[in-house]
Inverse folding.
């Protein structure tokens, strides 16, 4: 489910906006916390971040469910491509590839997402993945246009 948006021309900070695990608090409407961040490099020398993100789902009324997910984020082409692999309880997994490309007047951000889930969860997972990607694209575009930093300080907000 690829989504794309174009961001205004600016510095190379766009890659940072989508590569900092803490930036996803506020860039995803589900992520309310990021913890246990471990940065390093893989065997190919690429930057890797492993962390736990907490998704918050509202169930009924004030009842909510916090879902800790394990994320492995790899800068496969620094400044150009980022791959995130997510493992969630309930045998749900997700792979997101974010590509950044210079275009006239700005940067194009394209995100492709593949989600896998057991049959009873597939519809819910697919709907949430689409919702998050659309929100993240709109929120990142809004922030970049306003030149607001994404510092992980706000909660309940999304990159496409």
């Amino acid at each position: 489910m690829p989504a794309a948006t174009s961001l205004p021309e600016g510095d190379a900070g766009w890659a940072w906006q989508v590569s900092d695990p803490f930036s996803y608090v506020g860039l995803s409407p589900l992520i309310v916390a990021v913890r246990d961040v471990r940065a390093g490099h893989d065997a190919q020398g690429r930057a890797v971040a492993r962390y736990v993100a907490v998704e918050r789902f509202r169930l009924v009324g004030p009842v909510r469910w916090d879902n800790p997910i394990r994320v492995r984020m790899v800068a496969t082409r620094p400044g150009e491509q980022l791959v995130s692999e997510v493992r969630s309880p309930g045998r749900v997994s997700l792979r997101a590839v974010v590509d950044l490309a210079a275009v006239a007047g700005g940067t194009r951000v394209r995100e492709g997402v593949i989600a896998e889930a057991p049959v009873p969860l597939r519809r819910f997972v697919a709907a949430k993945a689409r919702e998050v990607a659309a929100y993240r694209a709109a929120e990142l575009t809004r922030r970049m246009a306003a030149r607001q930093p994404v510092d992980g300080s706000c909660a309940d907000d999304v990159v496409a």
